[in-house]
Amino acid sequence: MRQISSWASLAPANQVGSMFGISASSVRSYDQAVLERDTPPPNLDGNRVLLVDEKSVRKQHNYVTMVLNADTGELLHMQEGKKGESLAVFLRSLSEDQKRSIQAVVMDRGGAYKRAVEQNLSNAAIVFDCFHLVMNVNQAVDETRRIEWNKASKEDKKFIKGGRFLLLTNASNLAEKKQPKLQELMPAANQSLSTAYLLKEQFQSVYH
């Protein structure tokens, strides 16, 4: 089982199963048994900053909430289920001393994680991570693009419709040959879309 588990960290379960003449499900079962036996319990004492996010698992888009120690990268908690409750279960399991050591929790802008932290870690700062903030800004720009396309004249629609990539790509990352197309798009874009693009670029400057 240990040999199979070591291979499972290097190759897909179906390939490992073929090597040993067993099914992929048996490979996963052996690997889980070894990991459960050998992996020490997480260190919940003295954690300063927590990273919280969700990860999609399986084809049905089920999600697990993951909590990591920001300083060491150690996985402290992982549980399926609704975002807020999955995190709250972990936070409620902490002792008062363990809670007091946590200074900040980093998360996306979804309200479920925020409420769980506010209810269980009243002294911890809530920090929205930069990746999700950039994603939210880009979503706002794209939503503005769709709104303005619906209102645009027939002539301007063709510029706006094909401008999604140009608008969402950072100006510093835009290939030189694409720059003229961006310059063509800006006159066709009305004030709302131009403002959204400039705000996005300004936010990128703050982000970096």
Give an account of the 3D structure.
The protein is an alpha/beta fold and 208 residues long. It folds into three domains: 2-38, no CATH class; 49-128, Nucleotidyltransferase, domain 5; 132-207, no CATH class. The chain has eleven helices and five strands. A five-stranded mixed sheet has the order 3-2-1-4-5. Helix 7 packs antiparallel against helix 8 (154-161). It starts with a helix and ends with a helix. 18% of the residues are buried.
Please tag this protein with its features.
Nucleotidyltransferase, domain 5, 208 residues, five-stranded mixed β-sheet
N- to C-terminal separation?
47 Å
Q: What number is the mean pLDDT?
A: 87
Ranges where pLDDT stays below 50 over 5 or more residues in a row are none
Can you identify the CATH superfamily of the largest domain? Answer: Ribonuclease H-like superfamily/Ribonuclease H
Number of helices: 11
**CATH fold field value of the largest domain:** Nucleotidyltransferase, domain 5
How would a textbook summarize the main sheet?
5 strands, mixed
Helix content: 55-70%
CATH class term of the largest domain: Alpha Beta
Strand-and-helix sequence, N→C? Answer: HHHEEEHHEHEHHHHH
> β content, as a range?
5-15%
Tell me the total number of β-strands: 5
Rg for CA atoms: 24 Å
Secondary-structure class: alpha/beta
Tell me the domain tally: 3
How are the strands ordered across the major sheet? 3-2-1-4-5
CATH architecture title of the largest domain: 2-Layer Sandwich
Q: Quick one: overall form? A: extended
